[in-house]
Design brief:
mainly alpha
Length: 563
C-alpha cells in the first residue's frame, strides 16, 4: 500500500508539474527524495490493469530522462524489460506509447549509452515488437514513430542487435530497409509533385524562355504545414536507416561486419533495391537542378547518404551521378551547414577510377573545389580555434582539409586549366592560413599535419604556374610560409607525416631556381637555420638525406652568392 501511495503521489506530481510550471521546482525537490526504485518495483508488481501500469511506467521513465541524473538500477531495468515485452505482445494503443518512450530513451545520449550496455530480454523484444508493427497495415501516423525508433535503435544498438544470433533478425532487417526505401520514394514523389504544381500555377500564359546563367535561381516553395514537416522528418530517418544499412552491408562484403552471414539472395535483393532508389533519388536531384532550386531540404538531407554511395558503389549509376555532381557540390557548399565533408571521400574514390579524372573535369569539380578551399583557408586564417574547438570538429576539419588538398594535388599535377588569377587568390588564402597557424598561441594539436598539407599544396601550385604570371610579393610570402613551416615542424616529425614532409622539401628545392624571390634574404637564412641541424640527420633514412641535403646545399649556395 505504501508503494502504491508513493506511485500515485508521483503520477499526481507529474500532472501538476505539467499543468503548472511555476510549481515544478517545488515538486521536483519532493520527487528527488522519493525512492524511485521502489516506485519502479511497485509498478511492475502491481495488480492494477495493464493500461494503468504502462501509463505509470512511461511517466516515471520520461521524468528520469529529462529531470534527474539517472542510474539503471535492477528495478528500473525490470521496468524496461516489462515495457519492451508490452511492445512485443500488445496490439493496442499501449504498444504505441512504448514506441514513443523507447524513441525518447534512445535519442538521449547518456541514457542511450546506459541502455546499450544493459543486457536483457528487452533488446530482442524491442526488435520483435518493431517487426510486428512495421509489418502491419497501419496509418502513417502509427507507422512513422516505429520507423523513427528503428532508425535510432539501429544507430545506437548496432547491426548485431538488428540481426541477432544466427540471423534471427533477418526478416526485421529486410522489412526495415524496404520500408525506409518505400518512404523515400513516397516523400520525394510528393515533394516533386508539389513543386511541379506550383511551377505550373505560377507560370505565365506564354511559354517561358530558359533562364540564363546570370539569373538568380528561386527558392523552393516552402510550407509550414505539419504534413510537410512530418514528411521531411520521415525522410531524414529513412535516409539514416539506408546509410547505416549500406555501411553494414559493405562491411559484411569484406566478411568483417555483423551482417557477414547474410544469405546471398538477401544481399542481391537489397543491392537491387538500393540501385533502384538511388536512381530515383538522382532523378529527383536532376529535377531540382532543372527547376533551379537552391535550397531543397530533401537534397541537403541526402548528401551524407550519397557520399557513402559514391565511395562504396563504384559501378552503378556513375553517368547519372556525374550529371548532377556540380549541383550537389553547390548545394553542399552554399547551405547553412557545410556538407562538403560528406562528398569529399567520394570524389577521392572517383578520381582514381578509370576515366574518373576526366569525368570530374567535365563536371567542373576543380573550380568548385578551389572556391571551397579558398573559403576554408580564409576561415582558418580568421579564426582557427572555431574550426578546432572540439575533438569532433578537429577530426572533421582535418579530414576535410586533407581530402581537399589531396584532390587539388591530383588536379594540379594533371595540368588542369585554371586562370592564374584564381591560383594567386588561392595562394593568398593559403599563406594567410599558414601565417595564422604559425603565430597562434593555442594552435591545434594536429597543426604539424595541417601546415605540411597547406605548404605542399602551395609548392605544387607554383610548379604548375608560369614564372611571368606570378606576383613577386606573392612568391616571397610563399617563401615565408615555407620557412615558418620548417621552423615549426623541424626534423623531429612522426612517421605518419615524414613522407609528405620530405615531398615538400623536394618541391621547395625544385622551385628555388625558378623563382629567385622565393628564398632570398631573411627567408633563406631562417630556412637554413631550421634545416641545418646536423645532429638530427642521424634519424634520417638514406632516401630522406638525398632529399634534404640538396635543399640545404642550394640554400647555402644562394647565401654564399650574396656574401
Amino acid at each position: 500500500l505504501v508503494w502504491h501511495f508513493a506511485t500515485a503521489f508521483f503520477i499526481a506530481s507529474i500532472s501538476i508539474m505539467n499543468t503548472s510550471p511555476l510549481l515544478e521546482e517545488k515538486f521536483e525537490s519532493l520527487l528527488l527524495v522519493s525512492n524511485l526504485d521502489g516506485i519502479a518495483k511497485a509498478i511492475t508488481s502491481s495488480s492494477k490493469d495493464e493500461e494503468s501500469s504502462v501509463s505509470e511506467a512511461v511517466s516515471l521513465l520520461t521524468w528520469m530522462i529529462h529531470k534527474r541524473p539517472f542510474h539503471l538500477s535492477p528495478d528500473v531495468k525490470s521496468l524496461i524489460n516489462y515495457l519492451a515485452n508490452i511492445l512485443k505482445t500488445n496490439r493496442n494503443q499501449l504498444q504505441f506509447q512504448t514506441i514513443d518512450l523507447f524513441y525518447e530513451m534512445l535519442s538521449e545520449e547518456k541514457f542511450a549509452q546506459e541502455l546499450k550496455s544493459f543486457k536483457g530480454p528487452w533488446k530482442t523484444d524491442l526488435r520483435d515488437g518493431l517487426l510486428a508493427v512495421l509489418s502491419s497495415r497501419l496509418t502513417p501516423k502509427q507507422r512513422n514513430p516505429a520507423l523513427a525508433l528503428g532508425d535510432v535503435a539501429l544507430s545506437v544498438l548496432g547491426g548485431e542487435w538488428a540481426m541477432g544470433k544466427d540471423n534471427e533478425g533477418l526478416k526485421f532487417v529486410e522489412v526495415l530497409i524496404s520500408l525506409a526505401i518505400i518512404e523515400v520514394r513516397l516523400v520525394l514523389d510528393s515533394l516533386s509533385d508539389a513543386r511541379n504544381k506550383n511551377a505550373t500555377k505560377d507560370a505565365p500564359d506564354a511559354t517561358p524562355s530558359k533562364a540564363t546563367a546570370n539569373e538568380k535561381p528561386t527558392e523552393i516553395p516552402t510550407s509550414t504545414s505539419g504534413n510537410v514537416e512530418d514528411s521531411l522528418r520521415v525522410l531524414v530517418h529513412s535516409f539514416s536507416i539506408m546509410e547505416s544499412s549500406l555501411q553494414l552491408l559493405c562491411l559484411s562484403a569484406e566478411e568483417e561486419g555483423p551482417w557477414s552471414n547474410l544469405p546471398g539472395g538477401t544481399i542481391l535483393r537489397l543491392h537491387s533495391k538500393f540501385n533502384e532508389i538511388f536512381a530515383f533519388m538522382f532523378d529527383y536531384v536532376a529535377d531540382c537542378r532543372d527547376h533551379q532550386v537552391i535550397a531543397d531540404p530533401a537534397v541537403t538531407a541526402s548528401l551524407s547518404l550519397i557520399g557513402i554511395w559514391m565511395v562504396e558503389e563504384t559501378e552503378s549509376l556513375r553517368k547519372e551521378l556525374f550529371t548532377i555532381l556540380p549541383y550537389l557540390l553547390n548545394m553542399a557548399t552554399h547551405g547553412e551547414v557545410d556538407a562538403m565533408p560528406f562528398l569529399l571521400p567520394g570524389l577521392e574514390t572517383i578520381i582514381v577510377e578509370e576515366d574518373g579524372l576526366s569525368s570530374l573535369l567535365e563536371a567542373n569539380v576543380p573550380s568548385l573545389l578551389i572556391t571551397y578551399m579558398i573559403r576554408n583557408a580564409d576561415a582558418l586564417a580568421k579564426d582557427h580555434l572555431a574550426l578546432f574547438d572540439s575533438s569532433e570538429s578537429r577530426a572533421t576539419a582535418s579530414s576535410t582539409l586533407e581530402s581537399s588538398v589531396n584532390l587539388l594535388l591530383s588536379f594540379v599535377s594533371n595540368a588542369i586549366q585554371v586562370e592564374n588569377s584564381t591560383w594567386n587568390q588561392l595562394l593568398t588564402s593559403l599563406n594567410e592560413a599558414c601565417s595564422t597557424l604559425c603565430l597562434a598561441k593555442n594552435p591545434p594539436s594536429n597543426m604539424m599535419r595541417i601546415l605540411i598539407d597547406l605548404n605542399l599544396l602551395m609548392t605544387t601550385i607554383l610548379a604548375g604556374m608560369d614564372e611571368s604570371s606570378c606576383d613577386a610579393h606573392q612568391i616571397r610570402r610563399c617563401g615565408e610560409s615555407f620557412a615558418s613551416c620548417c621552423e615549426k615542424v623541424k626534423l623531429d616529425i612522426p612517421q605518419t607525416e615524414r613522407k609528405e614532409w620530405f615531398q615538400l622539401m623536394s618541391n621547395i628545392r625544385n622551385q628555388i631556381s625558378r623563382f629567385p624571390t622565393l628564398c632570398d634574404g631573411k627567408v633563406r637564412d631562417d630556412m637554413l637555420q631550421a634545416l641545418n641541424r646536423r645532429s638530427e640527420y642521424k634519424n634520417l633514412t638514406l632516401q630522406e638525406q638525398k632529399v634534404l641535403q640538396p635543399l640545404v646545399k642550394a640554400l647555402t649556395s644562394l647565401q654564399s652568392k650574396v656574401q
